Amino acid sequence: MKVYEAAKKLYPALSGMDFIKQTCPDKLQLCDSDKINCNCNRHKEFVDNECIKCWSQKISQERIKWLMECKKNV
Prior knowledge:
By secondary structure, the protein is an all-alpha fold. Helix content is about 45%, strand content about 0%.
């Protein structure tokens, strides 16, 4: 599953533009730290190719399961 697809599942109230403009996959803890490179300037005013590349990467099923379990327990 891609990062933006996981974000839609976990945070259904966010719109597509919110994903890129107001949040970062790393801030939402959606990144597999060993596989996804989310090391960019998160204080941008405009969406650039780094943002799109980050949101389009795949994350592991284990990470998604962990995030969903955490959300249930909150």
